[in-house]
Amino acid sequence: MKNKFKDLDISLVYILGIVVLVNIISVFYFFRLDLTDGGIYSLSDASKKIVAGLDDKVIVKCFFSSELPPEMKSIPRQIKDNLDEYKTYSNGNLEYEFIDQTSEEFSKQIMDYQLPSAQVQMLEKDEFKVKRIFMGMVILYEDKKEIIPFIQQGDIPAIEYEITSRIKKLATDKLPSIGILSGFGCAQPEEIRTVLQVLSSQYVVDQVTADSNSLKTDRINSLLIIGPKENFTQEALSSIDKFIMSGGKAAFFVDKTSINLQMQNATDINTNLDSLMMTYGIKVNNDLIGDKQAGIITVRQQKGFFTIANPVKYPFLPHITDLDRSSPVTQKIEAVDLYFASSLDTAFSNGKNTELKVLARTSAETFVQSGKYNIMADRDIEDYTFGSEKLPVIALLKGSFQSYFNSAEKSLVTRIAVSGDADFFQENKFGSQENISLFLNLVDWLTADEALISIRSKEITQRPLDKVEDGDKTIIKWLNIALIPVLIAAIGILRWRKNRNRNDFSLKK
Fold first, then answer.
1. Of 43, 184, 259, 267, which is the most exposed, with the fewest CB atoms less than 10 Å away?
2. pLDDT of 394 above 80
3. For residue 176, which of 211, 138, 224, 213 has the smallest C-alpha distance?
4. Are 291 and 362 a contacting pair, CB within 8 Å?
5. Which residues contact 248 (CB under 8 A, 6 or more apart)?
């Protein structure tokens, strides 16, 4: 018995020694194990590369209140863990500090940096009290600053992107510029407010007109044409063509149908962009896609005296899961939801001087309407006749493109993105955060700045359930109903037989 206790004591000493040794090593060498899918809680290679390339000191100041609600108490520690990792890879060029809330410096700097506060309810001595808290960060580089005004628990998965993008912006001498085309019925700023806000944190964003003075590569690097609804003039097409010929990048987000949801009808949109885009190797078709893999809407139906809200699959809201996993743009995006989309015709690409890559396709169960549209929401999805072809809806092209106005002229090597839907990232229409991420990734790809794509795509990943056939649903339902009673009965029988055998054995003795 004494030997057993002696062996146990020796084992405990060994374990304690290993723990102490690991702690000593961790003081000098940073190490972090992240077992999450996609490494949400550890820095990506892009962030490491950006902070490793800093030429001057970055100072990060954290302003967190000392008393926080329970759901927010872990945020300062998680931020500190992230900043420790940034510091490790910065070659001594990143420092951070947590400003003590009780100090005069805290109050003064809160005012100087204009950090906002929030009111929260907290339980104190068995009663709820309203308290004002601060949860902000300030990033300083040379004479410039960037502010993260308020951090909540839901912001933690995206905090790496928020920090890295701001460091990158501060350390960049000249930000790339993006032109949002105005006129010709293109989307207004308030219709794309969310994406504009994010773009403005990384790029110089301007509203531009389709004339030769505005569309110059020394003014903007990339042009976004979003949802035009009117015919482009030949002068406007010429300006766009000259911009692309001189190496400017362009994205065409094109709707081919105008949807009136109240009247439940659709009409064609003509813009004169078809011939221009066909010259570059692609076209958005004059059609409307229906997909059996679709989003759900609520349809109100009258049943006698009652109005019932029924959730139904609506084929004109395709749920796209067939995404190119080899492209950084869509590599980590699980799915996107489109809104009355049209298909792309990629047959015009000759493949000689340009490369075309389809980023997103519908499911194999689709149908196409053209000319005459029926978008009534009261039809059951099974009433539609679906084909078996996957249709392209978003594509990328890069290379040297032929001019629309001069077939002998070739562009400098450049990039073009094309989408058969201009709504998937607009206000009140995007179905998920991944829609926004896809749009921003497309813009990053256009500007040939793919460093932030991998970070942004780490934020939140949807895990939709696999489709279950009706027959399988029935089997699973009856298993759920019958399996538990059967198991309970089986356990009861086993216990009864065990007790009976025990009693028989006792009687024999």
1. 267
2. yes
3. 224
4. yes
5. 215, 217, 220, 221, 222, 223, 414
Q: What is the DSSP string of 442-501?
A: HHHHHTT--TTHHHHTTS----PPPP--HHHHHHHHHHHHHHHHHHHHHHHHHHHHHHHH
Local structure of residue 211 (DSSP, 8 states): S
First to last CA, the chain: 37
Phi-psi region of 340 (alpha: psi -120 to 50; beta: other; left: phi over 0): left
Task: Locate all alpha helices (DSSP H) within 281-321, ordered by sequence.
Answer: none
Look up residue 218 and give its two tokens: 């020394």
Query: Phi-psi region for residue 335, left (φ > 0), alpha (ψ -120 to 50) or beta?
Result: beta
Name the token pair of 463: 């895990």
Distance of CA 420 to CAs 241, 257, 287, 488, Å? 20, 10, 10, 55
- Determine contact, residues 209/405, Cβ cutoff 8 Å: no
CB neighbours of 201 closer than 8 A, spacing ≥ 6? 165, 166, 169
Q: Per-residue pLDDT for 503 more than 90?
A: no
Distance CA 25, CA 12 (A): 20
Q: Got the DSSP string for 217-270?
A: TTT-SEEEEE---SPPPHHHHHHHHHHHHTT-EEEEE---EEEETTTTEEEE--
* Lookup: tokens for 330: 């869509």
Q: CB of 60 within 8 A of CB of 83?
A: yes
In sequence order, the β-bridge partners of residue 92 are: none
Alpha helices, H only, 90-158: 104-113
SS3 44: coil
Do residues 288 and 254 touch, judged by C-beta distance below 8 A?
A: no
Print burial letters for 302-315: b (CB count within 10 Å at least 16), e (below 16): eeeeeeeeeebbbb
pLDDT of residue 52: 96
How confident is the model over 75-105, as pLDDT tens digits? 999 999 999 999 999 999 999 999 999 999 9
- State whether residue 350 is helix, strand or coil: coil
For the chain, count helices (H), then strands (E).
11, 23
Cα 334–chain centre separation = 9
What are the tokens at 482?
Answer: 């019958």
CA 454 from centroid of its chain's CA atoms: 10
Sheet holding 177-181, edge to edge: 204-208, 177-181, 222-226, 249-253, 414-419, 392-399, 354-361, 322-323
Question: 181: buried, middle or exposed (CB in 10 Å: 19+, 13-18, 0-12)?
Answer: buried
Q: What is the reported pLDDT for 380?
A: 78
Per-residue tokens: 356: 């075309």
